[in-house]
């Protein structure tokens, strides 16, 4: 999407709304009773109020009993099954697509890893989902999995006549994913993960990511084909994590110049603390200031146009920045402010 | 029966009143804190508030007054961490706040541990911990290890991407009665089951209690794979490990 706030005038948004991990709080306002059934209330692409029922089989699941409703997983499973309710589930998926298009997402990231721990079921789901979502939009898709075989299945199902897919992701621990990307003419997210462990600090991130970039360039990818994910870790766990990531972004941008893309799973930054939305948004702003030109984000919840228009002098912004830059030990001030209602879940 | 008002320390009273909801937990904690001496209540209160400086000072003071190291650990530190665990489970507090409490715990344990080991007091048990094969994520596993160590367990950390053989060798070498496996990915989660199979094949399954955890892992999945227990977070992991030890005893 065009965005003046970003150096280069363009922010590449990889929308993460079609992930089977996505959950709604069962006590939240979008979970309602409809005709005697628990359901997710939503507006469809035409603006009409609709309901996606929560199947009884989901009510036995652990996450449901812990107060979470995995709405995207419900929609994918019910739509794939093709029986009763599959029309509603397809309408639900379609609005997830359309709402991301409306806020000018550049890629739609698809991830079905949580649908099952069985590889065959994951493969069946990604194949179905790629075909189904391509039937709804011309936007390029990002095929996301922690398993290369699932990614391969998704890419095989992808019709690349109009747009190139994005492979999410390749890293030193599975460098063969680069060949897979080449085979399918895909652009590729390369991460800063090491061969045998997660990177420690900014330097190691730059080194790992550089080895991936260099390997890709050698295979004939261009800088513009590559999206570096420097790996965002939760700032709640260690206050240096935010700084490590931002410093790596600066280093990588300096090293590779303006053509390479730098992105990242921004919402990891806020794991473990309340008031996550603001932390995510400020992390996006700071990443872009450090040299990133995109993010793997929920663009509907955090529309970049609004995010980059945020008042940076506000107390809430400053407190979120302090968390990310390691200036708020154990996030004490931020959490205290959240308890007083000074952070807010939504703007 | 012990009453809340019988607890001397105001912070502990308030914590129980404000954050505890389940009758059996209220009863257990009221009974516990009524029994323990006021200085132990103060240590627990400081730990709950994540105040490592005060825990450090009071632990030193208690030892100076001749109070037994084991009593300080059980009645001051671990009792405080019990309340922290409940508050975290019920989402009254969040990850960084638990980490602050863990740091306070560590401040106290820095005095307690050398005394216990010098006097031959054994750790609760040895736990072998690792992230499964193919999985490089260790943040959650490291939180578990920190909480286990803070609660009196000795932990052998095998790091990430741990093979069946590495798990088996470590359990054998350290004669560990407990094994904990972590996975963050649905794609690596099944490796927990494979490792459990490997323990069966090596004829060692009966010698070790196996607990599993990680974001995508569920109780149902743990049961399917034949694990002995599932822990939903770092504090639950400690509760599970303690459960294993008490069954053994």
Instruction: Tell me the overall shape of chain A.
Output: globular
What is the tally of beta strands of chain A? 13
Q: Can you say what the CATH homologous superfamily of the domain at 164-339 in chain A is?
A: Dihydropteroate synthase-like
Mean of all residue-level pLDDT scores of chain A:
95
Please tally the β strands of chain B and state the result.
Answer: 5
Report mean pLDDT of chain B, rounded to a whole number: 94
Tell me the helix content of chain A. 40-55%
Q: What would the CATH topology of the largest domain in chain B be?
A: Rossmann fold
Q: Determine the strand fraction of chain B and express it as a percent band.
A: 5-15%
- Work out the helix count of chain A: 13
Number of domains of chain B: 2
Estimate the strand proportion of chain A: 15-25%
CATH class of the largest domain in chain B: Alpha Beta
Name the helix and strand elements of chain B from N-terminus to C-terminus, one letter apiece. HHHHHHEHEHEHEHEH
H/E order of the elements of chain A?
EEEEEHHEHHEHEHEHEHEHEHEHHH
Structural class of chain A: alpha/beta
């Amino acid at each position: 999407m065009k965005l003046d706030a970003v150096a280069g005038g363009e922010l590449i948004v990889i929308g993460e709304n079609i992930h089977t991990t996505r959950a709604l709080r069962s006590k939240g306002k979008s979970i309602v009773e409809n005709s005697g059934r628990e359901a997710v209330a939503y507006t469809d692409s035409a603006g009409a109020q609709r309901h996606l029922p929560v199947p009884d089989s989901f009510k036995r699941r652990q996450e449901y009993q812990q107060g979470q409703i995995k709405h995207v997983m419900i929609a994918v499973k019910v739509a794939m099954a093709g029986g009763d309710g599959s029309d509603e589930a397809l309408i639900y998926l379609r609005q997830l697509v359309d709402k991301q298009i409306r806020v000018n997402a550049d890629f739609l990231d698809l991830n079905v890893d949580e649908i099952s721990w069985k590889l065959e079921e994951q493969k069946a789901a990604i194949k179905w989902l790629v075909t189904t979502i391509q039937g709804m939009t011309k936007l390029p898709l990002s095929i996301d999995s922690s398993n290369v075989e699932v990614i391969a299945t998704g890419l095989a199902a992808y019709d690349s006549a109009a747009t190139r897919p994005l492979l999410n992701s390749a890293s030193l621990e599975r460098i063969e994913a680069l060949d897979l990307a080449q085979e399918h003419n895909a652009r590729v997210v390369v991460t800063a993960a090491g061969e045998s462990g997660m990177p420690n600090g900014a330097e190691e991130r730059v080194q790992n990511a550089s080895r991936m970039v260099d390997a890709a360039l050698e295979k004939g990818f261009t800088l513009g084909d590559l999206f570096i994910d420097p790996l965002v870790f939760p700032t709640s766990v260690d206050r240096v994590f935010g700084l490590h990531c931002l410093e790596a972004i600066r280093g990588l941008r300096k090293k590779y110049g303006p053509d390479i893309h730098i992105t990242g799973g921004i919402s990891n930054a806020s794991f473990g603390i309340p008031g996550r939305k603001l932390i995510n948004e400020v992390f996006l702003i700071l990443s872009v200031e450090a040299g990133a030109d995109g993010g793997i984000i929920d663009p509907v919840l955090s529309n970049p146009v609004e995010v980059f228009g945020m008042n940076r002098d506000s107390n809430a912004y400053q407190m979120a920045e302090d968390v990310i830059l390691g200036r708020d030990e154990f996030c004490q001030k931020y959490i205290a402010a959240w308890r007083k209602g000074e952070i807010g879940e939504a703007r | 029966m012990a009453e809340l008002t019988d607890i001397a320390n105001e912070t502990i009273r308030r914590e129980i009143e404000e954050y505890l909801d389940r009758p059996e937990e209220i009863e257990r904690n009221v009974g516990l804190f009524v029994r323990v001496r006021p200085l132990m209540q103060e240590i627990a209160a400081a730990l709950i508030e994540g105040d490592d400086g005060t825990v450090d000072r009071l632990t030193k003071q208690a030892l100076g007054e001749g109070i037994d190291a084991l009593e300080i650990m059980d009645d001051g530190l671990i009792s405080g961490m019990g309340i922290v665990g409940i508050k975290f489970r019920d989402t009254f507090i969040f990850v960084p706040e638990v980490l602050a409490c863990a740091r306070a715990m560590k401040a106290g344990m820095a005095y307690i541990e050398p005394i216990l080991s010098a006097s031959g007091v054994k750790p609760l048990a040895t736990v072998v911990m690792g992230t499964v094969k193919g999985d490089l994520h260790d943040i959650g596993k490291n939180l578990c290890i920190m909480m286990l160590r803070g609660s009196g367990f000795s932990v052998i950390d095998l790091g990430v991407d741990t093979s069946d053989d590495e798990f088996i060798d470590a359990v054998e070498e350290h004669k560990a009665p407990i094994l904990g496996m972590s996975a963050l990915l649905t794609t690596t989660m099944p490796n927990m089951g494979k490792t459990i199979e490997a323990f069966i094949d090596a004829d060692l399954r009966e010698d070790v209690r196996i607990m599993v955890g990680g974001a995508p892992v569920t109780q149902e999945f743990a049961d399917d794979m034949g694990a002995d227990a599932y822990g939903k977070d770092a504090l639950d992991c400690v509760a599970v490990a303690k459960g294993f030890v008490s069954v053994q005893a």
